[in-house]
């Protein structure tokens, strides 16, 4: 999970763990890339789109698509103007825990 808002990072990670997922967290795209460079055995990356540090969620997705094609990359944003910018679905904030779990399970089970 990649999210620059600490409270959202913490509560979402706890939700994912409560539903049986193991979670690693990063506060920006650069930290996420460093974690992936050490261990790429993740199934899903769930990332905010807009983050500090120069690596957006879209940048992270493109990097993962190229270097870690086995990863499912799911994005979220509080902004709604991203729908046509990239060929990817963006879960709009605020989202419910049920919406998040359904999204992740749908991608993991497909």
Automatic annotation (TrEMBL):
<feature type="modified residue" description="4-aspartylphosphate">
    <location>
        <position position="48"/>
    </location>
</feature>
<dbReference type="InterPro" id="IPR001789">
    <property type="entry name" value="Sig_transdc_resp-reg_receiver"/>
</dbReference>
<keyword id="KW-0597">Phosphoprotein</keyword>
<dbReference type="InterPro" id="IPR050595">
    <property type="entry name" value="Bact_response_regulator"/>
</dbReference>
<dbReference type="Pfam" id="PF00072">
    <property type="entry name" value="Response_reg"/>
</dbReference>
<feature type="domain" description="Response regulatory">
    <location>
        <begin position="1"/>
        <end position="108"/>
    </location>
</feature>
<dbReference type="InterPro" id="IPR011006">
    <property type="entry name" value="CheY-like_superfamily"/>
</dbReference>
<protein>
    <recommendedName>
        <fullName>Response regulatory domain-containing protein</fullName>
    </recommendedName>
</protein>
């Amino acid at each position: 999970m990649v999210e620059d808002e600490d409270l959202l990072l913490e509560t979402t990670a706890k939700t994912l763990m409560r539903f049986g997922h193991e979670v690693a967290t990063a506060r920006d795209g650069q930290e996420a890339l460093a974690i992936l460079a050490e261990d790429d055995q993740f199934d899903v990356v769930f990332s905010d789109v807009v983050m500090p540090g120069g690596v957006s969620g879209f940048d992270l997705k493109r990097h993962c698509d190229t270097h870690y094609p086995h990863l499912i990359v799911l994005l979220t944003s509080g902004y709604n103007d991203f729908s046509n910018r990239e060929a990817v679905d963006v879960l709009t904030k605020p989202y419910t825990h049920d919406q998040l779990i359904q999204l992740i399970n749908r991608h993991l089970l497909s």
